[in-house]
Specification:
By secondary structure, the chain is an alpha/beta fold. It contains 17 helices and 5 strands. It folds into 2 domains: 6-154 and 274-297, 3-Layer(aba) Sandwich (Rossmann fold), CATH 3.40.50; 166-254, no CATH class. The chain has helices spanning 12-20, 24-33, 40-49, 56-62, 68-75, 79-87, 95-110, 121-133, 142-152, 158-192, 194-199, 201-215, 223-229, 233-241, 243-249, 253-268, 282-297; strands at 6-10, 34-39, 65-66, 114-117, 137-140. Helix 8 (121-133) links the parallel strand 4 and strand 5. It is globular and about 65 Å long.
Length: 304
């Protein structure tokens, strides 16, 4: 810890969702408790997706960048190519990949474990094991972040955290509705052009299957459908526009909702409470975050 703040890393989708919650209380608590580092790639992605003017506290968060040349000097090699080959990860231009490398770099430099906060659930599935096995830290969602904030910060009330968790759920659901509506518009445009519709029967079927799965909450085994429709230039742009929501639909979104609901229930029932004392180091914070996962896996919601 530095200046009594936990060293951490934030990915683009985490920041975008965090700012969309429009909670000054939450941002103030974040800045007070966390030294949140960002990669250059995350900052570029953020400004590409966020066109609104930033207030002073948001601007201060976005300015906390670790520049690429620092990591180049540390690794003494083309670290992007090295980690891309090592991890067999193709999306080297995306923020979650650079955030994972930044996590590894800072953990080696600072000799500690560092939490990486991201709502890219696909990246969590693909990259979290690398960070855990290398003792760099781990990857955690905004849901985990809010829970740990509630437990360690005395000023965040029960009413505040329940409202924030409900807003996260609504934010996720709104994003999925927008994605579904955009897909329905694309399907309608195809159907209106009879000649094109005949030529693209397979594409229409794939879109219909995707919409059906989203309406019925069947979020598993959806990657192949997305891969197929992304070959169409128009649909590729639609998916890019809704990239935050794709991180949800390509995972078991229902389990994400269950996790949010369970945390709210346990806070209201006083099963989740404020800690008697906050973690005194990054290592203790990581132990707490990892305990959340073990508790979820075992359906155990009591405090450690």
């Amino acid at each position: 810890m530095k200046d009594n703040k936990y060293l951490s890393i934030a990915d683009t989708c985490f920041l975008l969702h965090l700012f969309e919650l429009e909670s000054e209380i939450l941002l103030d608590i974040l800045v007070r408790n966390f030294d949140c580092k960002l990669s250059e790639a995350v900052v570029k992605e953020f400004y590409y997706n966020n066109k609104s003017k930033l207030g002073s506290i948001r601007a201060s968060i976005i300015s906390n960048v670790v520049y690429s040349y620092e990591m180049t000097d540390f690794f003494r090699c083309d670290y992007i190519s090295f980690f891309s080959n090592f991890l067999d990860y193709e999306k080297i231009e995306e923020g979650e990949f650079h955030s994972a490398i930044l996590s590894f770099y800072l953990s080696q430099k600072e000799k500690t474990k560092i939490p990486l906060f991201t709502n890219d659930f696909r990246a969590i599935n693909k990259l979290s094991s690398f960070l855990e096995f290398s003792n760099a830290g781990g990857m955690f969602s905004i849901i985990n972040f809010l829970r740990v904030l509630y437990e360690i910060d005395k000023k965040l009330s029960k009413q505040d955290i329940v409202l924030l968790l409900n807003n996260v759920r609504e934010l996720f659901q709104l994003g999925l509705r927008r994605l579904r509506i955009d897909l329905e518009i694309c399907l309608e445009n195809l159907n209106q052009n009879i000649l094109r519709a005949r030529k693209q029967v397979r594409l229409r079927v794939k879109i219909e299957q995707l919409i059906y799965k989203m309406i019925n909450g069947q979020y598993n085994q959806i990657e192949e459908l997305l891969s197929d429709i992304s070959k169409n230039p128009v649909l590729k742009e639609v998916l890019k526009k809704n990239s935050l929501s794709l991180d949800l639909v390509t995972n078991d979104y229902n389990s994400i909702l269950i996790e949010i609901n369970d945390i709210i229930t346990n806070i209201n029932n006083n099963t989740i409470n404020k800690l008697a004392s906050s973690p005194k180091s990054n290592l203790e914070l990581m132990d707490l975050l990892k305990w959340y996962y073990s508790a979820i896996d075992s359906n155990n919601t009591s405090e450690p």
